[in-house]
Structure formats: structure tokens, C-alpha cells
Write a structure and sequence with these properties.
The protein is 74% helix and 0% strand. The longest helix is centred in the C-terminal third of the chain and has 27 residues. It is mainly α. The chain starts with a helix and ends with a helix. It contains 8 helices and no strands.
Amino acid sequence: MREEKNSYLLKTIQEYGKGLLSFIRGRVKNDADAQDILQDIWYSLSLVVNTSPVEQTSAWLYKVARNKITDRYRKRSESLLDDLFDDEEELDFRSILFSDSRTPETEYLRNLFWKQLFIALDELPEEQKQVFVWHELEDIPFQKIAEQTGVNVQTLVSRKRYAVLHLRERLKKLYDELTD
């Protein structure tokens, strides 16, 4: 039985390891954090496999990855405004927006960011704005949006891409103002 579980773990690591690591890397600041989270996921899987089988392995792995990434951001300690800016790294708005930190500096930045985001969203054509809000803020998959609206998935992806480009440009201005 133990051999069967070890075989399952090895097969899962081989099958999902690279994709899962890429998924995590896209959502954390550095490779060390990504590797740590991936190791935590494999450890969690080994514990779960010892008690019961995982039916939808892929879904389970990515759900655990999202949770571990969220936990990582939540565990960040409170920091001063100066600590949020590093000459070699960009301002990480995620760590400000989703941290539990309640310092006056983080509250100010959080409020400023959301205000600027919604101003920038209002500048977008309605279709681009709606796709961005549904997909990014409400976490609705493109496929479900397509089913609800009757719009092709590729069209939705394209609309979101234009929205993201506009928002990056607008939020870059905010970043430049805050760092200058």
C-alpha cells in the first residue's frame, strides 16, 4: 500500500510539477517563495494521500496552490511605507492590497490604489471593463463568461488584454508618483 502511495506521489510530481511551479511563479515575487510553496503543496498531498485518495488531482493541486499563495501574502508582517519600495523591485500592490496589515501607510496606499483602479476602469470601453471585473475581481472563468454573454472566449481574452494594458499604464503613473 505504501509503495502504491509513493508511486502516486512520484507520478503526480512528474505530471504536474512544472506546470504548477509556473503557475506559482506567476503569482509570487521570487523563485524561492515559489519553490517553498511548491514543497508545501507536495507535503500536503503526501499527508492527504495517507488518509484518503485525491479524486481530482489537478483541481486539488491548483486550489491548494492558490490557498498557499494567499496565505503567504497574509503572513507578511506589517511594514513601513519605506519598506514597500525597493530600487530593484517594483512596488508589489498585491502585498499591500491583500495583506492584513493595518498601518496608516498601507491603508493610505490601499485606498489610493483602489480609487485609481476604479478611475482607470471607468476610462475603459464597457466591454473591456466588464470582462476585467468579471475575470479578475469576481474570479469568473472566461468559459463561464462566454456562456453567459454569448461572446467568444478569444474575444473576451482580447478585451481583457486591452483593459490590462490600459490599467498597467495608468497604475504605472501612480507607481511613478509614489516612488519619485
